[in-house]
Design a protein that fits this description.
Jelly Rolls, 3 domains, binds 2-acetamido-2-deoxy-beta-D-glucopyranose
Amino acid sequence: MFILKLSLLTVLFAAQGLLISAENAITCYGNVQRLSCDSGLISVKSAIYGRTDSTTCSAGRPPVQVQNTQCSLKISLISKRCNGQRVCEFKTDVLGSPDPCVGTYKYYNTTYDCIQGRVRVLCEDSYGTLDCGNEVIQIINANYGRTDGTTCSEGLPGSLIGNTNCYAPDTLTSVATVCNGRSSCPVQASYTIFTDPCVGISKYLTVSYFCLPPSVQISVTCEGSTAVLTCGTGVLQIQSANYGRTDSIICSAGRPVNQVTKTDCYASNTLAIVMNRCHGKTTCSVSASNDVFSDPCVNTYKYLSIAYSCAVY
Ligand SMILES: *[C@@H]1O[C@H](CO)[C@@H](O)[C@H](O)[C@H]1NC(C)=O
């Protein structure tokens, strides 16, 4: 659930200056894929395993293995493992995904943003506080466990750090529940708080997060529906808006894959239209439709995302 909420924030990254760069990694099956951010932290937008074109990873392959270009499977494990890290490597054949098209030679295609964020690490049985000052915390990712042999290892025998594939499944949900939307929150690396994912191993808690102005809210409306923005107090301030698609998960339920895979679709008139109808008002409605914005990407199922706040003068 939180992963979905985070991807709704994509439009905010740009508006708030959090977005540093947009990246793409393609790796042929059986090799190591490496995601990295020279600056900032990884936020995966889409991770697809399969084949959607016939030239990528085709060298030396018979035509029968590369001609199916309708094969794609979303791999959610990649965002779970990589979000919030600076570098993330995995061997593509150990992700344990089912084969979406037997007989076709496949590749991993991961699209991700590098965003500004902070990382906090607490060794076993340590306490700390995350603090965003006047802003509020948004957790990117969190894990209680062990994923390398060096973090929090000083002076420990090898037997205590031997498992580096250790993830407590409830970490992200429980840290996000305590911290999201607050200006500061306590965090603790302890098996009394999280499930113990590897008994006998010395673990640590890693939390990645960013800080947002407290008032910013995101409205997302799938194509065909109408966005209604309302301020209880004050008037609407529009921060950013886009009608199109920048994420493959949002508004994808029940849609064929080919309608949701294009994630670089922007209607350049969106901000002007939404500003015109909403800015400075207490309420407004805008329908997410081609009639309003015209069609920025034919055959893609789109949505209208608006980041706004309510200002009191
Ligand atoms: C990789 O995925 C992105 C986003 O879905 C898509 O735009 C791009 O065409 C894909 N590239 C290949 C080679 O499949």
